[in-house]
Amino acid sequence: MDLETKVALVKPGLLTNVLRARITLLRRGVQLIAFVLLLYGAFIWPRPVETFFPPIPSQEPRTTLYDRNRILWVSGKESVVELYMPFLACRFIARGGLFKSCTVHFLSENITWRTSLTILLPHLLLFVAMCVLAGRFWCGWICPLGAMMDAMTGMRKALHLPRALVPPSWKCFLAKLRHFLLFLTLGVAVLITFPIFGRSGVNDSLFLIYCQFCPARLVYPPFGGVNPCWYDTTNSVTIFLTLVGWLCLGVFFLSFAIPRFWCRICAIGALVSYFNRGALLTLEKNHQRCTSCGACRRCCPMDIERVYREQEKRVVTDTQCLLCLTCVEECPEEGCLQVKLLREKVVQS
After folding, report:
1. pLDDT digits over 129-139, tens only?
2. Among 40, 102, 114, 175, which is 20 to 30 Å from 305 by CA?
């Protein structure tokens, strides 16, 4: 084999490896910066930042008033910015985070309070604008809980342990479960406003029900040096929610074996997924260049097959896609997969 032939074979591989390294390093860097800002924002900038969004008045029950032995006890102070994000920014971050909370918290809390739409509308419009812009990109690149799951996947790979696979029947079940959790959360938020379901119109044992079993409530506080409320024995409801919370924490740690396992049932992800296929950030496929090698299917942390199987439509963004760009990295065909923002190419395979 002559020198020119060797260079022709080696050069594309080098270029591909460089491209992959740049995208991977970029995502890891963004995740690290987001992790620090979201969990330690109140340490970096301790004074509250006022925005033009109207503040939402506190009503009863307040998470800031719960005792140490209650699930909804908040270990920190108020957030730096009173905004609600389409990813797991959380009120239970120890000593205050950058943003107020996630959008599911925002919706369920204010449905129960019956807050005026004139106050909520700017916050809702911000959520919609962020989702229309980038869909579940926020989950793949910004969410601290997602970054922790990616770190667990990295640890498994470093230990050379195999990846566990989710059976097809379970994929369907998990996809339905996340929507069930979302509508259950919003439904309970409505029901506990009625006196028949609560005390003085609100049952505080069911207030913010999703927050009570979301793993972020237990995972985030230790990063600020604070123990969360591990159990609440106030009544049968809080005992049940404590057990569900432990179960969900176990599900979260399953991400060591199954990449992004909690993302498959996350109610916030379910809410954002409604915008994913209509977002301005899109994943597109050039079918003429696809060789059906299956690289995109094998590398996807969410086990999505749409990118591999789609043979007609140009836009192949799936509702569960985190836009992590792993498939774009792994695709061996030049220009087969592209990520576009407002129809302008951002990166391609």
Report:
1. 999 999 999 99
2. 102
